[in-house]
């Protein structure tokens, strides 16, 4: 097909680098190569039984038809209850829309608000989809680099310096994919103080890793830290990561009625409701027993502790202990500008990642994909044996760099 048939805004959108890395690893595996896959961006657990059973029961009850475009009243109420219980935020169910995953919620929120050329501020390292979603909506992504020395968090001065009259959104993701950076009450207070000076800027918090947290006590929400931001705050969350439900495709957004209403209208003319059966499952996830979540986090935490220790004992590599999510963002600058024992020159993180994949069969994702070269992301959402083997092979790969 001639590229000219495709709309220019879509031609500018790149395919997701994480899907590309997963595809490359799968292709090598099909070709018979043993691959240690540290690319995965989803829990390695099955969806808990009580959630699966709730879905089966919904099917048997005949809940297999269209629901309201914005989601079933029961699920929207459960989300409102969750926001009140866990985040100290009061939302009416009509301020909530259920979407086909958190990704869909973010895309729709941007779609209904971004005018051509509007700037969307994105702290880097960022989740790979943010800039391309903005581009698909004809906005301009403005990347704000965040230093490793500040735990990869956005600071108030960087935010203030980036805000312009064209700024439409700030996208804030905590805990962050790919770094696990987790904003404290003080961090949020400082950002809120800047935002109060720019009343036209909307703020989207992507809370999808909220429960995958290794910090003590519950996470504080920006909206609870500064309630004056609520009229321009859109909260995005979902059940994918917390309840090992990535394939069920249930996310949601909560926010001011005009934005949520516009998202609902867009959804009514595009996807309609999220899957009815998945909505019943999500209801059971939010309202049911939470033991699974606690156990999963303990498992991730022990993997994190072990993996961080082993990475920091590997020459050429280092990483900080992430405060949440299930990734390590590994500094590989010690391996860059060096030559491997086999005579391969590693000019950047992409070379490092290709070397690890092609020579050692270890699949990770280059930091460049997250707007931050010099690093790579490795997942800990896989068994400790796979993680240990991957790091052992990394050690082998970098043992005699020249
Ligand atoms: N936000 C972030 C930061 C993510 O990492 C992901 C999943 N990779 C999503 C949103 C999308 O989640 P969902 O499966 O609910 O669409």
Automatic annotation (TrEMBL):
One function term, GO molecular function aspect: L-aspartate:2-oxoglutarate aminotransferase activity
InterPro entries: Aminotransferase_I/II_large (IPR004839), AspAT/PAT-like (IPR050596), NHTrfase_class1_PyrdxlP-BS (IPR004838), PyrdxlP-dep_Trfase (IPR015424), PyrdxlP-dep_Trfase_major (IPR015421), PyrdxlP-dep_Trfase_small (IPR015422)
A Pfam family it matches: Aminotran_1_2
Cofactor(s) essential for the protein: pyridoxal 5'-phosphate
SUPFAM superfamilies for the chain: PLP-dependent transferases
Keywords: Aminotransferase, Pyridoxal phosphate, Transferase
Enzyme class: transferase
Full protein name: Aminotransferase
Boundaries of every Aminotransferase class I/classII large domain copy: 34-389
Enzyme Commission number(s) of this protein: 2.6.1.-
Family (UniProt): Belongs to the class-I pyridoxal-phosphate-dependent aminotransferase family.
């Amino acid at each position: 097909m001639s590229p000219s048939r495709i709309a220019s805004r879509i031609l500018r959108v790149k395919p997701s680098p994480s899907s590309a890395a997963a595809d490359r690893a799968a292709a090598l595996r099909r070709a018979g190569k043993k691959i240690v896959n540290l690319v995965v961006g989803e829990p390695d657990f099955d969806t808990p039984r009580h959630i699966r059973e709730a879905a089966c029961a919904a099917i048997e009850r005949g809940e297999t038809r269209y629901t309201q475009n914005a989601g079933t009243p029961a699920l929207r109420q459960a989300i409102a209850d969750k926001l009140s219980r866990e985040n100290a935020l009061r939302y009416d169910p009509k301020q909530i829309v259920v979407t086909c995953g958190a990704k869909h919620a973010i895309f729709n929120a941007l779609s209904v608000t971004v005018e051509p050329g509007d700037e969307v501020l994105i702290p880097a390292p960022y989740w790979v989809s943010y800039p391309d979603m903005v581009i698909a909506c004809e906005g301009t992504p403005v990347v704000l680099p965040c230093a490793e020395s500040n735990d990869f968090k956005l600071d108030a001065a960087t935010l203030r310096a980036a805000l312009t009259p064209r700024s439409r959104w700030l996208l804030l993701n905590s805990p962050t994919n790919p770094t696990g950076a987790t904003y404290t009450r003080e961090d949020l207070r400082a950002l809120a103080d800047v935002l109060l000076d720019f009343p036209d800027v909307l703020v989207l918090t992507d809370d999808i890793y909220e429960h995958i947290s290794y910090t003590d006590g519950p996470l504080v929400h920006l909206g609870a830290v500064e309630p004056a931001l609520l009229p321009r705050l859109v909260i995005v969350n979902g059940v994918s990561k917390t309840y090992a439900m990535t394939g069920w495709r249930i996310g949601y957004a909560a926010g001011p009625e005009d934005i949520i209403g516009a998202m609902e209208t867009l959804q009514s003319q595009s996807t309609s409701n999220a899957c009815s059966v998945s909505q019943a499952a999500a209801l059971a996830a939010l309202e049911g027993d939470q033991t699974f979540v606690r156990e999963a986090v303990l498992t991730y935490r022990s993997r994190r502790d072990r993996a961080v220790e082993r990475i920091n004992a590997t020459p050429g590599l280092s990483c900080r202990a992430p405060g949440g999510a299930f990734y390590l963002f590994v500094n590989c600058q010690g391996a860059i500008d060096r030559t491997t024992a086999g005579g391969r020159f590693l000019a950047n993180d992409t070379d490092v990642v290709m070397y690890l994949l092609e020579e050692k069969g270890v699949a990770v994702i280059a930091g460049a994909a997250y707007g931050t070269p010099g690093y790579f992301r490795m997942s800990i959402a896989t068994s400790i044996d796979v993680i240990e083997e991957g790091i052992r092979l990394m050690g082998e790969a970098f043992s005699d760099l020249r």
